[in-house]
Amino acid sequence: MDNFRELKGVNIGIEIQTAQDKWPALASIVFVPHTESDYHQLTTLRDELKTLIGKSENHPLASLMEVVGALIEKYELEQEIEERDTWHALSMQMLARAYGEDEPEYTTDMLKWVNPDYKESDVATAI
Predict the structure, then answer these.
(1) CA atoms of 52 and 99, how far apart (whole Å)
(2) What is the SS3 assignment for 107-119?
(3) Rounded Cα–Cα distance for residues 66 and 74 (Å)
């Protein structure tokens, strides 16, 4: 461990060794959530930390609460993206079903009335 650099006056090798020694005790409560169960476990931990820490930014566990919060936010963002992608895929399937390959070409002379505010260029930029 002597080959490690120093960062802010701290020997990184010693810090890594300390983390390695302490990590097994923390790994069961601080982790990247991959399931809804993991997510709920982390939110429970965050809530307990909030109760313990309160508004004290100088509390020794304040940065742990920040890390747990970041892990929760990352999971929530991934879930939002996954849900949006699912909705997009479903809407594309429904459009494909509604407008199949045998769909006739609609012409403007088939319109019952014309929208005076319609601009064809707006349609192209909205897509």
Answers:
(1) 58
(2) CHHHCCCCCCCCC
(3) 12
Confidence of residue 4 (pLDDT cuts 50, 70, 90): low
H/E element holding 47?
helix 36-53
pTM of the model: 0.61
Secondary structure element (H or E) that encloses residue 101, with its range: none
Domain range summary for the chain, segments of one domain joined by +: 10-95
Whether 67 contacts 30, CB under 8 Å: yes
Q: Cβ atoms within 10 A of the Cβ of 10, count? A: 11
Distance between CA atoms of residues 43 and 39, nearest Å: 6
The first and second tokens of residue 105, run together, are: 């070409």
More confident site: 61 or 112:
61
The whole-angstrom distance between residue 102's C-alpha and the CA centroid of its chain comes to 40
The length of the chain, given as a count of residues: 127
How far CA 32 is from CA of 27, 66, 69, 74, 103, in Å, comes to 10, 14, 11, 9, 48
Tokens of 86: 């699912």
Of 61, 127, 121, 117, the closest CA to residue 92 belongs to: 127
